[in-house]
Design goal:
Layout (H helix, E strand, L loop, with lengths): L2 H20 L6 E4 L3 H15 L8 E4 L2 H9 L3 E2 L18 E4 L3 E2 L5 E2 L6 H9 L4 E6 L15 E5 L4 H8 L14 E4 L16 E6 L6 H9 L4 E4 L1 E2 L5 E5 L5 E4 L1
Parallel strand pairs: 1-2, 1-4, 2-3, 4-7, 7-13
Antiparallel strand pairs: 5-6, 6-12, 8-10, 8-11, 9-10, 13-14
Helix pairs in contact: 1-2
The structure holds ribulose-5-phosphate (5RP).
GO cellular component, one term: cytoplasm
Family: Belongs to the ribose 5-phosphate isomerase family.
GO molecular function: ribose-5-phosphate isomerase activity
Length: 255
């Protein structure tokens, strides 16, 4: 088996384990993340649906165009967050559980997301969920954010503000919060088309390298203060559990 196949197998094992544990027949509202690992989440959901093991009225809240396509193709029912009834505790967290991928997870379950440019909707859905469960292969499993993932922190910005936001982000100084003397931001470019990546929300993405991030909540808060920033791909303190698949077929769970 080639290395890409082994990585896919590792992602699949983590995705299946998370679905088996969390998508029990009493789950009525499920958040569905974005990315290549989530493809396996939906594959398992389709199997459970065919076996009659899902709640008959289960609805799935997508986090991107890709995610809504997967949900529909698997014969599951998509739902918009705004159409879900409030849950009575005043927080409007109507989603039982969301299962999503990640670019990196640290020892305290802080997460970098947005490799697929979907982190705005992913964070909104995560915040409306009673539990956020992360799935991925073991390359995502780090002690500190920035240990392994070299892609930087994705930051969604309004197109009109990308240059000013980039300049202001590169001047952020938070002593002790991250490794580099100054962050370095790059406007994400589309792979085959000329020009920047445009998100599902019509915005651009800056990938910001901080080196190792020692204080994810401080960096997340500070970047959010820059005018024109719509969302930052650091999810501090949101995940409750992460599953990592290894290439040898084993899986690890961090709680
Ligand atoms: C999309 C994301 C993805 O969940 C993240 O990039 C991981 O993707 P993959 O499962 O393909 O490795 O945050 O915005």
């Amino acid at each position: 088996m080639g290395s890409a196949d082994l990585v896919a197998q590792a992602k699949r094992a983590a995705a299946f384990a998370a679905v088996n544990k969390h998508v029990t027949p009493d789950v009525r509202v499920l958040g569905v993340g974005t990315g290549s690992t989530v493809v396996f989440v939906v594959e398992r959901l389709a199997e459970l649906r065919a076996q009659g093991q899902l709640h008959p009225e289960l609805v799935c809240v997508p986090t991107s165009f890709q995610s809504s396509q997967l949900i529909v193709a698997a014969g599951l029912r998509p739902a918009e967050l705004n159409d879900l009834p409030a849950d009575g505790d005043g927080l409007h967290a109507p989603i039982d559980v969301t299962i999503d991928g990640a670019d990196e997870v640290d020892a305290e379950l802080n997460v970098i997301k947005g490799g697929g440019a979907a982190h705005l909707r992913e964070k909104v859905v995560a915040a409306a969920s009673r539990a956020l469960v992360i799935v991925g292969d073991s390359t995502k499993d780090a002690r500190v954010l920035g240990d392994k993932w070299a892609g930087g922190v994705p930051v969604e910005v309004a197109p009109l503000a990308w240059r000013t936001a980039k300049a202001q982000i590169e001047r952020i100084a938070l002593p002790g919060a991250f490794e580099l003397a100054a962050p370095a931001a790059t406007l994400r470019q589309a792979v085959r088309k000329a020009g920047p990546v445009v998100t599902d929300n019509g915005n651009f993405v800056l990938d910001v390298c901080f080196g190792r991030i020692h204080d994810p909540p401080a960096v997340e808060r500070r970047v959010m203060m820059v005018p024109g920033v719509v969302e930052v791909g650091i999810f501090s303190g949101m995940a409750c559990e992460a599953w990592f698949g290894n290439e040898d077929g084993t899986i690890a769970c961090r709680i």
